[in-house]
Amino acid sequence: MTDEVIVAGAGIWGCTVARRLAEAGRRVRVIEARAAIGGNARCETDAETGIEVHVYGSHIFHTHDPAVWDYVRRFVDFNGYQHKVLVKYRGKVYHLPLGLTLVNKFFGVELSPGELKDFMADEAHSTAVFDAFFRGYTSKQWGRPPEEIDPSIIKRVPVRDNYDTNYYNDYWQGIPASGYNSLFERLLDHPNVSVECGRAFSLDDWDGRTRVYYSGPIDALFGFRYGALPWRSLRFETERLDVADFQGTSVMNYTEAEIPYTRIHEFKHYHPELKDVMACGRTIICREYPQPWKSGDEPYYPINDESSVALVAKYRAEAAKLPNLVVGGRLGDYRYYDMDQAMAAALAATAQGC
Ligand SMILES: Cc1cc2nc3c(=O)[nH]c(=O)nc-3n(C[C@H](O)[C@H](O)[C@H](O)COP(=O)(O)OP(=O)(O)OC[C@H]3O[C@@H](n4cnc5c(N)ncnc54)[C@H](O)[C@@H]3O)c2cc1C
Description:
alpha/beta, binds flavin-adenine dinucleotide, 7-stranded mixed beta sheet, 354 residues, 12 helices, 2 domains
């Protein structure tokens, strides 16, 4: 093992790993395949309006993990944004998650806390809620016909027996006040770290002795020798509008199967503290369309089924044969991670400082 380490991939996992290793005294060479750092939490600030556009879909940092919250705040402050998700169904707007606000409005009733559970235990009620808010959305999200979506999903959806419309249960949440990119820039801002963008790490360029922390796709690392792991992809259609406020909130879900997109993001609402940006007479929205993944598309959501579990196990076995290789992150582990989980995994991967 040499003194230098390579970190391949500059998403939140790679940037956290790089910082930890640099502070442990290692010389860290970060190699990022894309033209810029930040992975899927990368943002671009629109020059005309000052709106921070989330290039790969809305990202809200939320966590229940005090170690992660302490760590991330070494680099950025958060703006106190609290995430709400609204949903438009047949022209009316409701609040997720499933709670008193949604149920009372949808059925035109006045349930009190303590009455919701029995109300939802009635199959006619749970089926109506499932059909309106989950069936169409889930079928669009996963590309399966509504008939194949199991209505028992509704039983697993958390029900809040109160009027709390905060989307997350996590204790801490927000958006970096100085923007997501500043988090990544500051994580990598260390004299022991060098960064090279626009170059993909490959095993062909590796001497086998330098320790590598790799967070690209695990199947790509081994040349897809057992086949490609399946993903669900997304297409984003971004539009600039001459209105100050298009939908009055950051995310509006569309649950009807006939509407081809699942949500509309309106990015200016992530920074309510930026009064000039909020007051600007223009806004930027983005429609999110789920789509099948094919080679060359951005991989977004891993598809966990029996065959993909078996396939990823083969690639993990290959990785385990290489003692100086550590594979992690959402692409390396082939696992959906929220950002806090990716950061927690990076802290764990570097707990020994090597
Ligand atoms: C639509 C969507 C919305 C999301 N919203 C949220 C949210 O609101 N809150 C939340 O906490 N999480 C959210 N997430 C999850 C979040 O995107 C992940 O937690 C995060 O991206 C994980 O970081 P990572 O470093 O593991 O992977 P990535 O961010 O994907 O970074 C991996 C990096 O590796 C690079 N790379 C790939 N191959 C190579 C190679 N061979 N050599 C060098 N570099 C390579 C890639 O270009 C990329 O920059 C969302 C995910 C999706 C799909």
